[in-house]
């Protein structure tokens, strides 16, 4: 702990472009920083940039965590993800340590400015002073709330540490209380503009809408439902004044085969969406012109036919949980035909996922090894035949449904054909600058809906209307339920589908207390020959899918085992504290169930 927190503090100082043992030359000086309003603003931007440093497989956090849940998976034997689904996460896991490390690096960047901002208070207006403080406190609150969900009790550090400082873990209830009642006071947040100038900042900075949205999210996550409803309502009211709006979904090619066209939600999730859409409230930003400020998520997400490595995948359970267009499950709907399983489905299946027989990045996508050639429409409108490296030939075992690949499908949400063409195909050295979501308007509707459902005094009419707003955008029917239990089930479906691959699912199943139910049993993938599943799923009120052996054709279930999942409720609701930190600072205790835990 001491190594990471003190190291983070020093990194925060060095990030200001200075030296601890050299006098001020032509850059900010750590001994006097911040010395001007410009340096305060630079420090605010440095805190935001700290969030981009948390990644794995060159893919930003927290979105990647959905691939360690029940709705997403990674390539077989990928320890960072499979281990989380099998109750095998060790205390020396590099991903566990990296996230922990960067939580405190980001907090240190914020603390560095917060410790010194009063020295230059007279150099800015009262509004600017409070605005900068609010943004720094919001950024720190964001990472500390992560820390509480991931690790439980964590040290709450609110200033730059001296070399002699030493800290133990702060109870997470106390951390959350400090965040909500001391750091994110309404009177501080009200100094923020509704939203920062879109042309200048896009979705980089948090304005008042995002600030109250984040406060609503934190309240929801920790069971303060009345407060969550209040702050979500306030954020949504302000959002209208600020010009935020849901982006329409183009569903033209959903449910169609590759010959008709390519399903796409790039007007929201692609480069054009992040540049133009008013749904985005806050997102991680990247720039190809800044060294170290890119990622390569495109390579990990894209199919092998596009030069990617097909690393991450929706699970068969997630695919089978997605409703038909009548709002019923595939086990109940008369619209479902297992021989043509993509017809008459919630359009978000094709908008957010890549499945066999569809088009992705201008190419036909097939996982059947007998399909040795596929159509590529990138160079000619009528298409040309090219090798199907996804399922046939050298290293095809790493394809989406290969024996060493993920779970039979791919995520479409962040695949952008513009970025693919800019890179001339994805590869290990691709430069991707697609922004990654931290908050969008759709989430705020779902926060308000859930808060009203779970709060005893909540307005179920508001909850129903908010859920139907999100469903209506996807051309899904209105709800047929109005009671609390029915609306809870509908809400959980919407969070699972609408927010998939944005990093919420790992956390949602834990705060709902259902992780031990959904992370258990066999995780299935499609048959190796790419044939359509014949399994009739059993789907509960949480939209969790299991398979009892029943089939649509009366034959043996044709799915193949991907991995056996396991979840220990005494251990796996939290990650371990990194072992390296406990070695450096022995008074830091370990979480129950992990090596080194000692009951008090």
What quaternary form is this?
single chain
Kindly report how far apart the N and C termini lie. Answer: 20 Å
CATH architecture of the domain at 2-65 and 87-191 and 573-584: Alpha Horseshoe
Low-confidence stretches: 1-25
Class of secondary structure makeup: alpha+beta
Strand content: 5-15%
- Tell me the CATH topology of the domain at 2-65 and 87-191 and 573-584: Serine Threonine Protein Phosphatase 5, Tetratricopeptide repeat
- Rg calculated over all Cα atoms: 24 Å
Separate helix tally? 22
Write the layout of secondary structure elements.
Layout: H1 2-15, H2 37-50, E1 55-56, E2 59-60, E3 72-74, H3 79-85, H4 94-116, H5 126-151, H6 172-183, H7 186-189, H8 198-201, H9 208-221, H10 225-242, H11 266-269, H12 271-276, E4 280-284, H13 297-301, E5 312-314, H14 316-321, H15 348-352, E6 353-354, E7 359-360, E8 363-364, E9 373-376, E10 384-387, E11 410-411, H16 417-422, E12 436-440, H17 441-454, H18 460-473, H19 484-498, H20 505-511, H21 515-518, E13 521-525, E14 535-539, E15 545-551, E16 560-565, H22 579-584
Antiparallel strand pairs: 1-2, 3-5, 4-12, 6-11, 7-8, 9-10, 13-16, 14-15
